[in-house]
Amino acid sequence: MNLARRYLSFIKFEHTVFALPFALIALLVAADGRPAPRTLLWVLVAMVGARSAAMAFNRLADRALDAANPRTADRHLPQGSVSVAGAAVFTAAASALLVVAAWQLNPLCLALSPVALLVTLGYSYTKRFTPLSHLVLGLGLGIAPVGAWLAVTGSFAPFPLWLSAAVMFWVAGFDTIYACQDVDHDRRVGLHSLASRLGTRRALMLSRVFHVLAIACMAAAFRRAELLGPVSLAGVLIMTGLLAWEQALVRGGDLRRLNRAFFEINSWVGMVLLAVVAVDIWLV
What we know:
- By secondary structure, this protein is mainly alpha-helical.
- The chain has a single domain, classed as UbiA prenyltransferase (Tetracycline Repressor, domain 2), CATH 1.10.357.
- 77% of the residues lie in helices and 0% in strands.
- It contains 14 helices and no strands.
- Helix 2 packs antiparallel against helix 3, helix 3 runs antiparallel to helix 8 and helix 6 packs antiparallel against helix 7.
- The longest helix is centred in the first third of the chain and has 25 residues.
C-alpha cells in the first residue's frame, strides 16, 4: 500500500461523506443556490482538514486502547503501519489546513477555527469520563453546516443551528448503536458509553430517541428555509425511512448486521438530503 493510500485508510477518508453533505446543504441555502466557486473550494478544504485532523487525533489518543481491543487491534497505529510521529505530523498538518481555509473565508471563520478544533479533537477524550461522548461526536460533525453558513454570510441564523442539531442527534444515534459492540471491553477498561452504562437494550432505546430528535430538527430546519419547499420535506420522510430501517436491523440487540446499519445506511442519509435540496433549489 503506497503512502497516500495508507493515510487515507488510516483516517477512513470515505467517512467524510457523513458530514460533508450537510455542509453543502447549508452552503447552498446560504448562497441562494449559487455559491461562489472560491467559497465552495475553501469550505471543502476546511471540511477535509477538520475531519482528517479529528480522525487522526482520535487514532493517536486511542492507540493503546485500540491495541487492547481485539476488534481494533489491527488498526494502523497498533500494527505499526503508521508511526506515532507520522500520525502526529498528519494531525498538525490537517489542523493547519482547516485554519488556512478559515482564514481564506472570513475573519469570523478564522476566529472560530480553534473552537472547531477544540470540539473535534477534544471528543477523543470524552469517552474516558462521560457516556454522553456520542453527543460530543455529533456536535463535532454538527458544526460543519454552521461553518459553511458562516463562510457565506458571516453571521449566525436559525437554519444552520437547526441543521446542526439534526446532525448532532443523528450521529449520536448511530454512534450509540456502534458502541454496543464494545460493551464488555469498555466496562473492563473503564471507558464510558451509553451501552456500557445502561446496557445494550436501553442504549438502543436511547438511540431511537436521538434519531426521532434528528428527524424533528431536520424538519424544523427545512421549514425555516424560504428557499426550500415540499421536495426537501419529502427528503425528511426518506431520512425517516432510512433511520427506521437502521433501527430495525439492530432491534432486540441483534448486532450481526451492525456494519450494514452503520456504514451503508448512514452514508445514504446525507447524500439523499443533499440531492433533494439541490432539486428543490435548482429544478423546482
